[in-house]
Amino acid sequence: MTIASTAASAYWEPFWSQGRRYRQLDDAENRLLEDRLGPGHERPALDIGCGDGSLARRLAQLGYRTTGIDCSPSAIALAAAQAPVPGHDPIWQCMDITTDDPGTLPEPAYTVITCRLVYRWIDDKAAFLDRVRHLLAPGGTFWVVTEIAGRRPATDPLQSLGITPAQAELLTAGWSAVHTADIDVLRCYALRP
């Protein structure tokens, strides 16, 4: 991988420690998540780049045994400080998925792996996707939410946040099932091996 754990943490830590927050889950995204993933039935889920923990908590509310990871210690502290999800509170772990040993995760494989607003920031996307495939249980779902290039006006300062068509093609290559749904500037992907 091209990002060192300390480099990723050094970049993201100031954002979280200074109180920066990102786009919150909304009703439309929650409905898509529920429709594509269904009830958890105590199956394991991994939220990569969990930030403040909102998606990991949503997975826990759906009944998944959830682990939320982020390379920022402040993000993990923020996620852990939220009110617990009765009976399903996620496990929080400070970890850089691109460089740290996946053997330190609490499960060897996950039924659901989520990656919300993170894929765009991964330098070595092919290596990242290989790592995800190794962590995904047979028949599992990789849920990716990312911004798509060209959906914001050219004058918008956040216009460059979207992934390119080539990056989207890399993301969807090699999966047996690819389902997408759009929510304004975002595209939600449900990918199955």
Structure description:
The longest helix has 13 residues, at 5-17. The protein has helices at residues 5-17, 27-37, 54-61, 73-81, 125-135, 165-172, and strands at residues 44-48, 65-70, 91-94, 110-116, 136-147, 177-183, 186-192. The protein is an alpha/beta fold and 193 residues long. The two termini are 22 Å apart. β6 and β7 form a beta hairpin. It is 31% helix and 25% strand. Residues 1-6 have low confidence and may be disordered.
**Rg, please?**
16 Å
Order of strands, main sheet, comes to 3-2-1-4-5-7-6
Q: How much of the polypeptide forms β-strand, as a percent range? A: 15-25%
Mean pLDDT across every amino acid position: 90
List low-pLDDT spans. 1-6
Subunit organisation of the chains: single chain
Compact description:
The chain contains six helices and seven strands, in the order H-H-E-H-E-H-E-E-H-E-H-E-E.
Secondary-structure blueprint of this entry?
Elements: H1 5-17, H2 27-37, E1 44-48, H3 54-61, E2 65-70, H4 73-81, E3 91-94, E4 110-116, H5 125-135, E5 136-147, H6 165-172, E6 177-183, E7 186-192
Parallel strand pairs: 1-2, 1-4, 2-3, 4-5
Antiparallel strand pairs: 5-7, 6-7
Helix pairs in contact: 1-4
Task: Write a concise keyword list for the protein shown above.
7-stranded mixed β-sheet; 193 residues; alpha/beta
